[in-house]
Amino acid sequence: MTELPLATAHSIIYVLDMIGVFACTVAATVLAKRCNMDMFGAWIVSLIGSVGGGTLRDLLLNRHPIFWLHDLNYLYVILLVSTLVQIFYHTVERLDRAMRWFDALGLAAFTVIGVQAAVSFHMSPPIVMLMGAFTAMIGGVLRDIICQQIPLVFQKEIYTTASVLGSAYYLLLLHWGVSEWLNSLSTLVLIFSIRMLAVYRGWNLPNLTLPKKP
Amino acid sequence: MTELPLATAHSIIYVLDMIGVFACTVAATVLAKRCNMDMFGAWIVSLIGSVGGGTLRDLLLNRHPIFWLHDLNYLYVILLVSTLVQIFYHTVERLDRAMRWFDALGLAAFTVIGVQAAVSFHMSPPIVMLMGAFTAMIGGVLRDIICQQIPLVFQKEIYTTASVLGSAYYLLLLHWGVSEWLNSLSTLVLIFSIRMLAVYRGWNLPNLTLPKKP
Amino acid sequence: MTELPLATAHSIIYVLDMIGVFACTVAATVLAKRCNMDMFGAWIVSLIGSVGGGTLRDLLLNRHPIFWLHDLNYLYVILLVSTLVQIFYHTVERLDRAMRWFDALGLAAFTVIGVQAAVSFHMSPPIVMLMGAFTAMIGGVLRDIICQQIPLVFQKEIYTTASVLGSAYYLLLLHWGVSEWLNSLSTLVLIFSIRMLAVYRGWNLPNLTLPKKP
Lengths: 214, 214, 214
What we know:
Oligomer: homotrimer
Strand content of chain A: under 5%
Shape of chain A: globular
Number of strands of chain A: 0
Helix content of chain A: over 70%
Largest sheet of chain A: none
Distance between the termini of chain A: 62 Å
Largest interface: A-B, 33 and 32 residues
């Protein structure tokens, strides 16, 4: 099997990371407009919604500098995309369906990046899976809290589940010594697939609660 | 007076800490179910509600690694208890009264742990008291915010007050050179007693506001 | 031109910083009373509203110790002012207009302090401007979230804008080699002026959104 250079795998993850930032920014800006926020409000909520999860992960792991403080591409993508979404708001609002594809790409990329960061800090498997999930979902949670909504990801759909299953798969392949590029990319595909299947099949988590006794 | 080994005092505090985590997890899971959260949502809210206060304390003090990243017992207790509460939700919902005892034990344990952490980082007395209170109450505040409630601890009952009085007592005994095990355990008893008395006597803080002039 | 000692400029900024803390505490306490919080609740919300922005900035920059852990004046001013506002609540409630002057002074001081902190950590210009804005506004955002309000600063008025314009001006003068005391003080005046003009002229940001097609 020919070795794909690790650098190429990293480039692919970086591009998908930016797609995730793009998706988070669109979602955050649409929500901000619905809450009657102004230009700066939409920018800040987009920033929090896009990099909030990774920031919490870096703070918890004591991983400095925080990634977006030194790589300004995050900030530029967020400002540009949020501004465009504000201008073409009435058009973007109707693209809800298309956004789910980008959102699922972001979920996959954010999880892999979070998992890699936690692994490089020698965290135990349960914490690695948690850091992957945090990276992928805390931004959306903060965004929903600011806009006075009970966080969407806590209420329905296989979202965190896809992230956690992907992290477990990544750790398993890492344990088996599979090369990193293959591991990262197949994890990306797995998370994306689970998420999109869940969306189109309407999968939900089972409710654990026993029925009330009569 | 026979010296109780410090290790024993630490074990007692650790057990009470887990009881606090247990109480926080039950409260958070019940609230999460009321907000129609799914399994993962309830787990994450339980995690935030249980270790959120200690995490903020550790971040502020720059005390790494964050305690629950390396001691996985916290995560395991939270996942186990939250899952059980979700299954037996209709039964647990009726045990509100019993929970107050566990909750008060948690308040006491969390405060003592927060105070000890701040003292070991050479903080001044006002900051030590604040760190004790933060450890005990910020988790509940974050939990309430996520579930769209004005934080309960800010609105009524002698809760933070019990924590702060206990911290002041701890610092006084520390200043007088009382041995740590006796100091810790008597502080635990004091906070627990104040809290339970407040619950059963319906104590509230006085309202400072002067009446409106006619 | 006679050199104003840098120490004097720092003293002026420190005094204005405390005025900002004063303004934030008054605003937070009034909001806390409206949410039926008790004494401790009002104190904690005042603390979060006053130093929350600077704390997030310090955590992001990994700048320890967090400023208010070692300079207890912040805590004392907050406790004192919040207690007084609680006592004289019905009088303070009517002073809404006067508060805007203090609030604008705080906005200016918080921004300059945040900008100086980020510059001393060698951050790039966009991050410096963001840190100035975060320092000035995140406290108010957290306060509004706790009290179940969509953050005011995200919704209207030239608030963050004044902060960002001031930061850009500061960076420009820094680049030109203007001495720090002159730079800091003129930035303070600029931010304060923009904010007060915005308040009295009713300036708002333009809405970027294109009109809906018929």
